[in-house]
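tool_call: predict_structure(chain=1)
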Amino acid sequence: MPFFNNITISAIIFVVFLLLISIREVKQYERGVKFTLGKFSNLAQPGWRLVIPIFQSMRKVDIRVHAVDVPDQEAISEDNISVNISAVIYYRVSDAVKAVIEVENYFYAVSQLAQTTMRNAVGEVHLDDLLKNRDEIAKGIKQKVDTSTDSWGIEVQAVELKDIKMPDDLKRTMAKVAEAEREGKAVIVKANAELEAAENLSKAATKLAEAPGALHLRTLQTINDLSSDQSNTTIWMVPIEGLEAIGRIAKK
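tool_result:
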């Protein structure tokens, strides 16, 4: 009897040990892809799950949103200008089974696909369009990558173009062009202001000429404005004919 008791205790210990090593915890943000004898058997939801050693295996897949930095890629635009462009791609696993079965390493595959798609997108547009329409180009890259990764169970949520680096000589040229455009706009604004001022002066002169005595009233107003400040020095210019007339009056 003691021999059978020892066997029973050993069996219980073995079962407990087997049970402990068979438990797998699947977290809330994970899904478990379970294989039985090498074949896909079921998708494990969050919680404690049993995986029989030797006969079964399970691979956990994180279904949270991933942010992948796409490193600088050298590309040539449609107008043959070389630029370096980098981006960030945001994606999540929508189908854990496909992400495990259909592609070897979905993280690496998405990164490589994004790099290739980004270079191709740059080659289809001019540099000016690339700088002005970054959001639209990023949406186009996102759509292409998302379409290609559907069969992998990957959902691309967004693509953001981080930086577009151009050659230094091209930067200097663009800066000169921008400065010339600003100077041209300033000249146009100044010319318009002078034209408007001239038109207003012309209208004022016409009004003063039409009203008798208006010019004299304007002159008196100007003199009054000048005399309000003691620091002003006023010089009166009197024609020589006026002085001669005053002299003749004085002789009489």
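agent: The longest helix spans residues 168-210. Proceeding to next step.
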